[in-house]
């Protein structure tokens, strides 16, 4: 009887120990699973944060680029030019016309000067163009210019400045027609507000210099600063004026 009781007690003890051991293993496994899951969540959170930081950085860079405008230049070289249609085979043929032949390229006097300025100090070129085309022959051209002045015409422009705010300096070029600016310049100066900006004129001429057009610009743009350091060059001297124009542009200190 005692022997049977001892056997039964022994079996009960073994069963109890086995049950305790199994419970501890299950609990340990559950804890391990929880730790692994938490670790995965932490890694995922870190990845998400990193991706968010990368997105913010990229957005910040894009905003900075947008603030710089298209080119980042603060100088606008706006000009009105009229290359006449003449025979360019001989220097005598072009001497009296408002054109320059440079390495085979035919340009208006003002266009040529504008390109020299840009090559020297940079800036953005903007050509002032009209909807109605001017005649390219000399006599009809000057006749039309005189008629527009008599009528106080305002020729409609076909090109427009899209980002004026980025510029603080306007270098403005035009020919001297009958002692005045072309009437297209009046349209241009009445279309925009250059308040707080500096306007620097340059002008090829046939003997009359600026003809007081600087004061005309100041009257049309009363809240702009019109520089007294403009440049005029005789029409027949423009072709050989690259060094003079470049020296003037450098002297502006822009």
Structure description:
With 254 residues, the protein is of the alpha/beta class. 49% of the residues lie in helices and 14% in strands. It has 7 helices and 8 strands. It has helices at 2-67, 91-94, 109-121, 138-151, 183-191, 213-220, 242-251, and strands spanning 75-79, 99-102, 105-108, 124-127, 169-173, 198-205, 225-226, 231-234. Strands 1, 4, 5, 6, 7 and 8 form a 6-stranded parallel beta sheet that branches. A hairpin with a 2-residue loop joins strand 2 (99-102) and strand 3 (105-108). Helix 3 crosses helix 7 (242-251). Residues 1-69 have low confidence and may be disordered.
Structure characteristics:
single chain, 254 residues, alpha/beta, 6-stranded parallel beta sheet, two-stranded antiparallel sheet, 49% helix, 14% strand, globular, disordered N terminus
If you average the pLDDT, what whole number results?
75
Oligomer: single chain
User: What is the share of helical residues?
Assistant: 40-55%
Unreliable segments (pLDDT under 50, ≥5 consecutive)?
Answer: 1-69
Strand percentage lies at 5-15%
Computed structural class = alpha/beta
Number of strands: 8
List SSEs in N-to-C order.
Answer: HEHEEHEHEHEHEEH
Count of helical stretches = 7
The value of Rg in angstroms is 40 Å
What's the overall geometry? globular
Distance between the termini: 117 Å
Major beta sheet summary: 6 strands, parallel
